[in-house]
């Protein structure tokens, strides 16, 4: 069977609109959000679970490797084809149905191709929302495959916590459809199989539909920027805030001065909120919020936040050097501009690490101390989610740095950072970006033999054919 | 090798205190919390993961079946030996170490033999708690194996949501120890293997240590009993409460009039909170709570609750017929007495069902209508967790009912209830009690062939030897 025969069959399964083979139309699917430029044999764009199943079955039987692609916003080369031109991309971008809201159960059943922003727009009238807050705008299937967390993890958890059910197509010769689409919140009648497909980059099956938990949307919010008295007092500040505010606290984000300055430089419309414009070395964004409607006689949240900060401020051992309560849209605009700002500083080498909450600042301090010796002329521009232990540890080198022409430089840098983060601190080398070609080496290095054996066995049982960009 | 040789080796591994073989000392371990009377070959009581591993390895090599037992508070025959006298019980009751609190990370690493109440007592000073609220007092390993939910699921979720890491011993010839004891909140570097051991009744491995998420303990609470205007307005009432209160709402429990009357009859010290003592057909317990410290000028929670109920009451289509705000300890005392009260009404046939939240009352109404025809002279004494869809659907027959001497009667009744609950309503036949000998038949009946194949494969890969009372 020749390749054009395959294309013909796939066109028959998917219809004309469902299969892209024009070189110019494939580029967007072949190009990653930040890295990667691959070459695809074709782009399959199924509109239903049945079509996904038919495509997968055909490709498995004919030895055609598939790379599932959702919003293609990932940063670890998990959703783009390699350079061979032999892999097909299976895009979820047309798989946006069904959309079934169950208001009483606070759940929605949605197609895996629906974008996060579209889901929340559709939900607006209901007073509910899907509580994953991200800079990017992924589609649901990719969110499941990477188990994204984001900036409100502290309050609402990750995609795993908010996923009740999935429909999954396995990469076997039948294109088996696993119906795990329960909308039940409590159900302990065996293995919770959907967990296997969450955070595993699509290697064990393609998510086509999700049943998601929804939360009452926040209706009152207050935010502040805090300057800790010293890095080692950040944990104390976090504990003090949680102690005073309990589940009011919906974000506790860390931002390095370097990242803040980069954002302010790159987005001139941002207001510099600091006295005399002097950006501190490290800033914390806190948000408190209520999903309840505000009631007469109730203290406004801004006042609550100011009162709590005042009490912390007056302590003898106050972990706080300064604080700026300000409008949420301004403060979040700064936070959400960090990623773009950092990208424009130079060549970016990004890490998505996580730690126990008490270890984050210790890790950052150690890096500040040791990096200049080990790898000089690198600017550390970290920011992240101290409330859940996540750090987007960004390293920037000058655009014309000759080291970047050395293919070993970046890998050596990664090895060095991961050695400290994973081996010395017990941290994770992929907090919420999951796995892809880009960090395969580190999966291989840091995964114990016994776990690799189990993963390979599970892979053979579920999707024996190659699927995605990770080798489990 | 004779049996006494086995006993000798196990004694060598575990020490004298670690192995129980006296018939009189074994009874407590052979007897279930509500059902079951088995006969054990021995009771092994290891104090460490290493001892568990050694015992398991020896037993697997010598073909001795083990039943892991934690607090032995389960209701599905998941933790007691069968009647053969050939199975050993592996009790976690001495495996209470370690206990390592990480205040900043809000996590604790604890031995699987620690009791829930002991954990929360130890935590009191820290202001944190492990937020699973149950009538029973299980040990942690069993809570993981059944993925218990309880009365505050609505706010805090189940054991799965609150488990960050596990240490597990597999039933293979090596007694392999899987170290999944990460304390990270975000970590997506492959399959989240701990999920396989949560809610699967110990069949895939024995949990010996847990790393758990802790939450700020509630410091303000208000409760009320609500009488819905009609059963079909209960969902409306739930939505109205969530809409007004957001994440303040920490419990929304349903109680049938029959169950409430049984509790009031059985525990004379309980106050009857209803006007003229007339217990309504159906009552809802709501709790709102805050983990934040109360601040000056802040409205007390009782007043918040009264205000919200007042606003619902004044609606033209008010879903509320009556409401009684009362002290939390009194109202929870009534709620927690339901289980004991119902047990004393006669012979109890208990179901642990779950539904989508909007289906619960429809299911209960249908049962009320059809049960008298299908199975006369049965009293329905349900109560449960409407906020998360769980229903403890209790059926009571008279103590001297001759039908109970017919071994097929109970099974026929179960089949009939499950047919409606699972097939007609898409519900679960085990919401939070997980699986055991008692509901094996229904696992076999309701688990799709494809899922059974995967489960059997995973069983062979992890713990190929028999472990526990469920056949996956």
TrEMBL record, chains A, B:
Requisite cofactors: FAD
Record GO biological process: respiratory electron transport chain
Ranges in coiled-coil conformation: none
Pfam families: FAD-oxidase_C, FAD_binding_4
Domain of life: Bacteria
MF-aspect GO terms: FAD binding; oxidoreductase activity
UniProt xrefs under SUPFAM superfamilies: FAD-binding/transporter-associated domain-like, FAD-linked oxidases, C-terminal domain
InterPro entries assigned: FAD-bd_oxidored_4_C, FAD-bd_PCMH, FAD-bd_PCMH-like_sf, FAD-bd_PCMH_sub1, FAD-bd_PCMH_sub2, FAD-linked_Oxase-like_C, FAD-oxidored/transferase_4, Oxid_FAD_bind_N
Limits of the FAD-binding PCMH-type domain: 35-217
PROSITE patterns: FAD_PCMH (PS51387)
Keywords for the protein's UniProt record, in alphabetical order: FAD, Flavoprotein, Oxidoreductase
Protein name as catalogued: FAD-dependent oxidoreductase
Organism listed in the record: Agrobacterium bohemicum
High-level lineage: Bacteria, Pseudomonadati, Pseudomonadota, Alphaproteobacteria, Hyphomicrobiales
């Amino acid at each position: 069977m020749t390749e054009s025969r395959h294309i013909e069959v796939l066109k028959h399964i998917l219809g004309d609109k469902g299969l892209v083979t024009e070189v110019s139309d494939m580029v967007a699917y072949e190009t990653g959000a930040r890295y990667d430029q691959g070459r695809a044999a074709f782009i399959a764009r199924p509109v239903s679970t049945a079509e996904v199943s038919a495509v997968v079955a055909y490709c498995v039987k004919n030895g055609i490797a598939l790379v599932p692609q959702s919003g293609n916003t990932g940063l670890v080369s998990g959703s783009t084809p390699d350079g061979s031109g032999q892999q097909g991309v299976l895009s979820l971008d047309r798989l946006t149905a069904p959309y079934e809201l169950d208001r009483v159960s606070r759940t929605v059943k949605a197609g895996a191709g629906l974008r996060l922003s579209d889901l929340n727009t559709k939900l607006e009238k209901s007073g509910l929302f899907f509580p994953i807050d991200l800079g990017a705008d992924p589609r649901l299937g990719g969110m499941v495959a990477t188990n994204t967390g984001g900036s409100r993890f502290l309050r609402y958890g990750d995609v795993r916590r908010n996923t009740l059910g999935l429909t999954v197509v396995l990469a076997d010769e039948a294109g088996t459809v696993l119906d795990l689409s329960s909308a039940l919140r409590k159900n302990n009648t065996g293995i919770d199989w959907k967990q296997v497909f969450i955070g595993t980059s699509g290697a064990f099956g393609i998510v086509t539909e999700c049943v998601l938990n929804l939360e009452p949307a926040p209706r009152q919010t207050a935010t502040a920027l805090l300057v800790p008295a010293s890095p080692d007092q950040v944990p104390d500040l976090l504990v003090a805030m949680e102690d005073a505010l309990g589940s009011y606290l919906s974000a506790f984000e860390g931002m390095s001065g370097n990242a803040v300055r980069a954002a302010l430089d790159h987005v001139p419309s941002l207001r510099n909120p600091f006295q005399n414009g002097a950006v501190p070395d490290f800033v914390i964004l806190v948000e408190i919020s209520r999903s309840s409607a505000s009631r007469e006689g109730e203290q406004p949240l801004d006042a609550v936040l100011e009162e709590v900060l005042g009490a912390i401020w007056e302590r003898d051992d106050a972990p706080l050097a300064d604080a700026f309560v300000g409008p949420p849209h301004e403060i979040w605009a700064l936070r959400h501009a960090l990623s773009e700002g950092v990208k424009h500083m130079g060549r970016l080498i990004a890490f998505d690490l996580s730690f126990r909450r008490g270890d984050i600042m210790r890790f950052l301090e150690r890096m500040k101390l040791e990096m200049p010796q080990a790898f000089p002329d690198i600017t550390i521009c970290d920011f992240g989610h101290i409330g859940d232990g996540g750090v987007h540890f960004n390293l920037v080198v000058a655009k014309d740095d000759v080291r970047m022409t050395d293919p070993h430089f970046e890998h050596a840098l990664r090895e060095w950072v991961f050695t400290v983060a994973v081996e010395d601190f017990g941290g994770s080398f992929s907090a919420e970006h999951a796995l892809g070609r880009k960090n395969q080496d580190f999966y291989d290095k840091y995964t114990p033999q016994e776990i690799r054996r189990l993963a390979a066995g599970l892979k053979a049982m579920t999707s024996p054919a190659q699927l995605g960009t990770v080798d489990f």
